[in-house]
């Protein structure tokens, strides 16, 4: 039998139960036909078979990203990134440059503006923004998401109800263009509504291309909800079948009927039970080190989260909820425990997203309940330097306890790895590196366990292990070729591993420096 | 020829019911709108020109304005009568004739509200007036109207838009309350539903609706409104309804009998109280709670005390005890409380300086009154805080000088974040206050709220 594609002379890490490693793969009709030695595979090569001599390169299953905000990431592709702006003039220069690239009257939006990085230490006003873009709407999101700054045109267009009372005024009583709190939620939604479908498609295309280059062949997209827009979820539902990689959607809503009407098998995602460490609203047992008395926020009462989970569980939906701090994790475990006690279900695979600061007891409870943890190791890479964000917020001692991967894995709990893009970059290799090189040595896991997070575990995380997550016969030929073996490379060098080729259902989506394909 | 102007909703000018809006350019509409809204004030031509042609040099702007005024007059003036609408008392000023302002919907709107607010109106009169006012509000002020190179004008539009929207909210709230007073609960529902369309996240509206549906026997509808609120708050803001709303829902769903008050339980008043200190507004702001009963007096004073409790470091509180004040007594009460505030702030050097300055005013008379007021203004401006709040509990007991000072303060401390909160018992005849109210009734930073 002739096949479509043969990869040989490589290190094929199957990620199966036996932890098998082989030399070659045969792929036909988008499925893995066989895995074996170079000799075994020769028989499949025909005139029309593409062959790739891996020359010792490593092959792993196509990566999953188990937690990504695809549409916001795509939209942000077209946004101005103000990370490097150090003054209001810088901000204006960037807007002016963007304006010249766009058709007239197009909406301009920017992200990650941090007033403390500007020399003026204040956000620009609408009068500033009007100087460079008077005739089209401009929206700028601050780095912590709770402030939006707009120009006059956008202010008029938005039609915010004034009774919302979060529109800042100057000494003469005129709006400054800075919008806070609840009004900022509405402003962001208005901004999302103004972005055209064409722009969304363009952003999506760019994002998908980028993540394919990182070896991602399957993605769990958390879309819609209060911080974003339900339009995003609807958009992805319409577009996903046209995309070259697989997208599983968690519709970020508590409206069970809405999810059922879309015939989705799962609900939630990043439904915020609490917030984040950065914004000091992740719900902790003890106050934040840099905010005395502040233990964070719980956005649901126990009764409310119980009610939602019961409703969704009884409708046979897989549930995922965001819980970062210990108090939120406690509430969520209570809810799952109550519901599963009343309505037992084997193999429910309900999830907790983030699970960043659990107690030992909570880890045990999670194991007993059979929940899946969806975690993002890259946070440890970016936030855990000395005097980094974790330490400032949580204090030295407590910051050492975040993301205890080893404890969780040793407890027998499945961790599905993700990025939380685009809060963090979409980069499974970096995620693997971060888990293996966790700043707290006691929490480091092996490269193999880390690799599982982004392959087989992630597939199990959305009930797709029958078709994906490992390199085995009759599974989808979702494959990534890496220039080095993550299992054998010096652990501190894992982040330097390059993706050389991404293959989805036997089709090469991306290839670089692979050499000759015959 | 009758000029009618609709500024609430889509802008429209009409003469004898025939629209002339399309005959006027965008800036002509803007200029005419601005002049009409500010009638009978005079404006310097230079100021109006600068408002609409900010980037042009003076001569060009002036020339543009001249042309625009000519276009406007050409469209408005008729029957051989020239300049009957836009008046130019001299070369440098213009205004819109107050004789013709009655055709402006905003003027009519505010007039109906003012008449409804006078405590001499009967319930029926108030309802008629409030309904008429509500009907005039067809949408936001100059909806979708935006002049691209006139930022000062656009700022002004936004400012007016907010003011009128808030007034509209007050109108509908009051209308609903009036119907409740008459036990016409079904009628009381519609005004609130109209407001929800504008602000679907305004929980107090839902609270009222839920209660009204329950009181009118529509328990299922009440429950549905609560479910809608819960869903909306969760989807849009990821929050739960307030405890009060949840408690109300529980009462209704368990079939507990709701108490029927004569007026709806203070959601409007609560709304007023919630916004006693307008944090979002910079500069000076004065709010007077005009109460007509002892219970309302007590309630309002209680709210003032809560403000003090929550803002102890920045609040000056006077008039807690009843009794008619002698001349200047109110001024000295403010000074005494100010000194206490300084002591609490532990700013001894500044305190010493202040006491020395005040020594000059041991004897006040008409010749040094100005300087005393000026000194007091400087003192308030000098406190390095975000906002100063002055609570006056029994405003009706105070002498005329307190109102002279408040008037002085509004002119001299425009850019200082000062909030004045006063409770005034309307059963007291206070001529000086009546003049004060008349003078500032229409001013943006003054609110007279009748409870």
TrEMBL record, chain A:
CDD domains: YtcJ_like. Residues 51-510 form the Amidohydrolase domain. Transmembrane segments: none annotated. Pfam families: Amidohydro_3. It comes from the Bacteria. One of its GO terms (molecular function) is hydrolase activity, acting on carbon-nitrogen (but not peptide) bonds. This is Amidohydrolase 3 domain-containing protein. It comes from Anaerovirgula multivorans.
UniProtKB/TrEMBL annotation, chain B:
TPR repeats lie at residues 169-202. Pfam families: BTAD. Residues 104-253 form the Bacterial transcriptional activator domain. GO terms for molecular function: DNA binding. InterPro entries: AfsR-DnrI-RedD_regulator, BTAD, Sig_transdc_resp-reg_C-effctor, TPR-like_helical_dom_sf, TPR_rpt, WH-like_DNA-bd_sf. Gene3D superfamilies: Tetratricopeptide repeat domain, Winged helix-like DNA-binding domain superfamily/Winged helix DNA-binding domain. PROSITE patterns: TPR. GO terms for biological process: regulation of DNA-templated transcription. Keywords: DNA-binding, TPR repeat. It comes from the Bacteria. This is DNA-binding transcriptional activator of the SARP family. It comes from Anaerovirgula multivorans.
């Amino acid at each position: 039998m002739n096949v479509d594609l043969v990869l040989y002379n490589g290190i094929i890490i199957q990620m199966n139960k036996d932890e098998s490693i082989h030399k070659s793969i045969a792929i036909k009709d988008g499925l893995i036909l066989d895995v074996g030695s170079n000799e075994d595979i020769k028989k499949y090569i025909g005139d029309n078979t593409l062959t790739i001599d891996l020359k010792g390169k490593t092959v792993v299953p196509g990566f999953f990203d188990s937690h990504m905000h695809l549409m916001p990431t795509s939209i942000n592709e077209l946004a101005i990134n103000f990370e490097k702006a150090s003054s209001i003039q810088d901000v204006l220069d960037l807007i002016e440059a963007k304006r010249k690239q766009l058709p007239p009257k197009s909406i301009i939006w920017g992200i990650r503006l941090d007033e403390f990085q500007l020399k003026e230490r204040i956000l620009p006003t609408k009068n500033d923004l009007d100087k460079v873009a008077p005739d089209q709407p401009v929206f700028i999101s601050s780095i912590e998401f709770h402030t939006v700054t707009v120009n006059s045109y956008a202010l008029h267009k938005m039609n915010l109800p004034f009774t919302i009372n979060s529109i800042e005024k100057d000494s003469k009583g005129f709006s400054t263009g800075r919008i806070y709190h609840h009004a900022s939620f509405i402003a962001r939604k208005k901004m999302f509504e103004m972005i055209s479908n064409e722009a969304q498609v363009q952003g999506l295309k760019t994002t998908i291309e980028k993540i394919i280059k990182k070896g991602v062949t399957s993605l769990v997209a958390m879309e819609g909800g209060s911080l974003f827009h339900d339009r995003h979820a609807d958009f992805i539902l319409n577009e996903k079948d046209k995309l070259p990689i697989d997208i599983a959607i968690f519709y970020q809503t508590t409206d069970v009927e809405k999810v059922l009407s879309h015939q989705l098998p799962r609900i939630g995602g990043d439904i915020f039970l609490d917030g984040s460490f950065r914004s000091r609203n992740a719900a902790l047992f003890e106050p934040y080190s840099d905010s005395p008395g502040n233990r964070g926020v719980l956005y649901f009462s126990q009764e409310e989260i119980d009610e939602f989970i019961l409703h969704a569980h009884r409708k046979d939906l897989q549930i995922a909820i965001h819980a970062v701090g210990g108090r939120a994790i406690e509430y969520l475990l209570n809810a799952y425990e109550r519901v599963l006690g009343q309505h037992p279900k084997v193999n429910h695979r309900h999830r907790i997203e983030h699970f960043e600061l659990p107690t030992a007891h909570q880890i045990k409870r999670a194991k007993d309940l059979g929940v899946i943890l969806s975690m993002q190791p890259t946070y440890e890479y970016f936030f855990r330097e000395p005097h980094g964000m974790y330490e400032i917020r949580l204090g030295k001692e407590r910051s050492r306890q975040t993301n205890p991967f080893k404890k969780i894995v040793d407890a027998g709990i499945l961790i599905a790895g993700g990025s939380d893009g685009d809060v963090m970059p979409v980069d499974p290799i970096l995620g693997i590196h971060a888990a293996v090189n966790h700043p707290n040595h006691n929490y480091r896991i092996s490269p193999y366990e880390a690799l599982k997070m982004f392959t087989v575990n992630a597939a199990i995380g959305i009930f797709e292990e029958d078709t994906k997550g490992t390199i085995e016969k009759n599974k989808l030929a979702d494959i990534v070729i890496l220039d080095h073996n993550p299992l054998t490379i010096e652990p501190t060098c894992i982040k330097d591993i390059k993706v050389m080729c991404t293959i989805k259902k036997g089709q090469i989506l991306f290839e670089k420096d692979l050499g000759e394909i015959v | 020829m009758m000029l009618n102007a609709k500024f609430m909703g889509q802008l429209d000018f009409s003469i004898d019911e025939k629209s002339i809006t399309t005959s006027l350019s965008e800036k002509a509409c803007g200029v005419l709108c601005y002049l009409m809204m500010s009638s009978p004030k005079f404006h310097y031509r230079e100021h109006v020109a600068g408002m609409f042609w900010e980037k042009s040099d003076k001569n060009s702007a002036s020339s543009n304005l001249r042309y625009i005024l000519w276009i406007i007059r050409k469209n408005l003036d008729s029957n051989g009568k020239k300049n009957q609408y836009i008046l130019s008392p001299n070369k440098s000023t213009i205004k819109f004739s107050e004789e013709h302002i009655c055709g402006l919907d905003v003027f009519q709107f505010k007039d109906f509200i003012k008449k409804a607010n006078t405590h001499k109106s009967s319930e029926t009169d108030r309802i008629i007036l409030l309904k008429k006012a509500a009907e005039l509000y067809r949408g936001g002020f100059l909806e979708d109207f935006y002049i691209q190179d006139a930022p000062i004008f656009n700022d002004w539009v936004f400012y007016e838009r907010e003011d009128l929207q808030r007034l509209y909210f007050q109108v509908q709230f009051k209308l609903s309350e009036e119907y409740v007073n008459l036990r016409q609960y079904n009628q009381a529902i519609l005004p609130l539903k109209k407001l929800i369309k504008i602000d679907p996240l305004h929980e107090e509206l839902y609270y009222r609706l839920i209660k009204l549906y329950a009181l009118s026997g529509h328990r299922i509808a009440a429950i549905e409104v609560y479910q809608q609120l819960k869903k909306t708050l969760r989807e849009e803001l990821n929050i739960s309804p307030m405890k009060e709303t949840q408690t109300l829902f529980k009462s209704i769903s368990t079939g507990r009998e709701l108490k029927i008050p004569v007026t709806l339980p203070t959601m409007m008043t609560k709304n007023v109280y919630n916004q006693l200190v307008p944090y979002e507004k910079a500069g000076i702001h004065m709010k007077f709670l005009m109460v007509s009963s002892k219970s309302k007096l007590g309630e309002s004073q209680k709210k003032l005390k809560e403000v003090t409790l929550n803002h102890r470091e920045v609040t000056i509180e006077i008039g807690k005890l009843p009794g008619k004040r002698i001349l200047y007594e109110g001024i000295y009460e403010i000074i005494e409380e100010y000194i206490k505030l300084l002591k609490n702030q532990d700013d001894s050097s500044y305190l010493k300086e202040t006491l020395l300055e005040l020594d000059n005013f041991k004897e006040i008379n008409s010749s040094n009154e100005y300087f005393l007021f000026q000194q007091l203004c400087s003192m308030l401006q000098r406190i390095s805080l975000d906002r100063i709040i002055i609570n006056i509990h029994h405003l009706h007991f105070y002498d005329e000088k307190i109102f002279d000072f408040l008037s002085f303060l509004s002119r001299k401390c425009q850019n200082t974040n000062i909030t004045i909160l006063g409770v005034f018992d309307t059963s007291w005849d206070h001529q000086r206050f009546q003049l004060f109210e008349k003078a500032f009734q229409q001013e943006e930073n003054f609110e007279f709220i009748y409870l």
